[in-house]
Write a structure and sequence with these properties.
With 244 residues, the protein is mainly alpha-helical. Helix content is 64%, strand content 2%.
């Protein structure tokens, strides 16, 4: 092993350890995360950490981007395993992957969707990984453009909202009317709102049948978007869906 490759390996291992310690501290101390605290737990001088992360914000940004990436990839992999012509199955698979990841990684999920961290502003490089899930849901609707149920009659989209939706449509390939994208966004916000309620304990003493409640609402969102097929329920974790 060359000296250069050894240094690269040491740097990679050190970076990994710093991130692991930071995640543990986020779980126990939340917003009080600091490079000094990370260094103290690692038993090294705080100045040594600045060679890897120049500030607390740089460390937080790395953790946030990695969390968004792994959450997005979990949804993408689950959706990709469903048959391409089963639009509702693809939608449900992606939504369930989001819930499963959030329940398995509550600290990382809280970093993304919990209370904002004091004195931290997420930089632009977090935007693309943050959009992975919603763009996946949009792509499902685009793929089913010929088979989706008509958009129901309802109140018109306010002009400022339509402008936002039109801008987003122009940035993403595929033909999707603003009215349809609006419905996908309702499904997206309902997905994360419901996951937030579960992860942060807002369903405690109210809803005990969490998985069934989630299935029910994600099917309602699939209906709203216009995805074909009857409501589905999973036979068991990791198995195919059947009609409810």
């Amino acid at each position: 092993m060359t000296a250069q490759s050894l240094r690269a390996r040491v740097r990679s291992e050190m970076t990994r350890e710093i991130k692991e310690v930071a995640r543990r501290q986020l779980a126990t101390q939340g917003a009080n995360l600091s490079l000094r605290g990370v260094a103290r737990e690692m038993g090294i001088a705080a100045s040594a950490l600045y060679r890897y992360f120049p500030s607390r914000d740089a460390l937080l940004t790395t953790l946030i981007i990695e969390a968004y990436e792994t959450l997005g990839e979990a949804a993408i992999e689950a959706e990709a395993a469903a048959p391409r012509d089963d639009l509702r199955g693809r939608w449900l698979a992606a939504c369930h992957a989001v819930r499963s990841w959030a329940l398995a990684h509550p600290v990382e999920y809280g970093l993304l969707y919990g209370n904002p961290l004091p004195d931290y502003a997420a930089p632009p490089e977090t935007i693309a990984p943050a959009a992975k899930v919603v763009l996946l849901l949009v792509d499902i609707a685009i793929d089913g453009a010929e088979t989706l149920a008509p958009v129901p009659s309802r109140a018109p989209i306010p002009a400022p909202v339509r402008a936002d939706l039109t801008r987003l449509i122009d940035q993403h390939p595929g033909d999707l009317p603003a009215e349809r994208l609006d419905l996908v966004f309702v499904g997206w916000t309902q997905l994360f709102g419901l996951v937030n309620f579960e992860v942060f304990g807002r369903l405690n003493d109210t809803i005990d049948a969490r998985a069934e409640y989630f299935d029910h609402h994600m099917n309602l969102m699939a209906d709203l978007v216009g995805l074909p097929g009857l409501p589905r329920i999973p036979l068991a974790p990791g198995t195919e869906y059947v009609e409810a």
